[in-house]
Amino acid sequence: MNVIRAVGRLWLVPVTLVVWEIATRAAEQPFFPPPSATLARMGEMWLSGPAAHLLLTEQAMDDFGPSLARLFAGWTLAAVLGVAAGIAIGCSTRLSGYLDPLIHLGRAVPPPLLVPFFLALLKLSTPAQLTTIVFGIIWPILLNTVDGTRTVDRQHLETARIFGFSTVERLTRVIIPAAMPKIFAGLRLALSLALILLIIAEILAGSGGLGYRLLTAQRSYLYTDMWGCLVVLGLLGYLLNSAFLLLERRVLAWHTNARQTT
Questions:
Q1: H or E stretch including 126?
Q2: Main localisation, per the record (predicted)?
Q3: Selection from 246, 241, 259, 262 nearest residue 190 by Cα
């Protein structure tokens, strides 16, 4: 049944490709190559390597390797910092009063505008790119964690106090599990933002990766290459979101079951 539903949701994809193919061939515009040409070029660039390398070419390694490493490194660092700071702020009214104005000021600054500043400060491209990603995506993680921590049921906290739970036990057995749904919501939003900021950072301050490949194709008027990069980015975003949703369902299965029983 799930397979049938999945297939039913994907019927629009081939229809869109057919319409896209017909429209681009009728328009005969070099700026909008047909999907068949784009897919052929994608295969030539990234999937024409030896079988021992899973058909991946050297160009695929050069494009995908650095980008995925920066993406996951920036997202992981932002997750650790955002969750830790969010729990601390959510548990402390005094700390929240001090830091709330700074948080709202920081989240209002567009991260791409800070890329030149990070480049001047950090010199190297990769640290500047990672800093851009972390600065841009930490806010949804931080704010969702703060909100999740603050909305823990007071009866649960009171019960933990009555049973003599230590501070660490209340944190690990009551507060964090109760805040997990909102923490995961922030992490999923941050993952999507991380991909966007990765491409912006690689375009503005990169020397490799998908963003730099996209910029090079644009400057060289290689429109098929450019559209290939855009298609790959769309697919990558979809796959990352789907994989994270699967992980979220497994990790928070207890929460879903608890809501259904109540």
A1: helix 125-150
A2: membrane
A3: 241
Q: Collapse the DSSP code of 207 into the 3-class scheme (helix H, G, I; strand E, B; otherwise coil) and give the result.
A: coil
Q: If we measure between CA atoms, which residue out of 210, 190, 187, 188 comes closest to residue 199?
A: 210
What gap in Å lies between CA 253 and CA 216, rounded to an integer? 44
**Cβ atoms < 10 Å from Cβ of 227:** 23
> How far is Cα 186 from Cα 165, in angstroms, rounded to an integer?
28
For the chain, the first-to-last Cα distance in angstroms comes to: 27
Residue identified by tokens 């660092």 is 77
> Tens digits of per-residue pLDDT, 40-70?
999 999 998 888 888 888 999 999 999 999 9
Please spell the DSSP secondary structure of 175-204, one letter per residue: IHHHHHHHHHHHHHHHHHHHHHHHHHHHHH
Q: Which amino acid is at 59?
A: Q
Q: Who contacts 129 (Cβ-Cβ below 8 Å, separation ≥6)?
A: 70, 74, 198, 201, 202, 205, 206
CA-CA-CA-CA dihedral for 10, 13, 15, 16, to nearest 10: 150
**Residues whose CB falls within 8 Å of the CB of residue 245, separated by 6 or more in sequence, listed in order:** 188
Please write the tens of the pLDDT for every residue from 13-36.
888 888 989 999 898 888 899 999
In sequence order, the 6+-apart residues with CB closer than 8 A to the CB of 77 are 130, 134
Q: How many CB atoms lie within 10 A of CB 137?
A: 29
pTM equals 0.89
Distance CA 137, CA 11 (A): 33
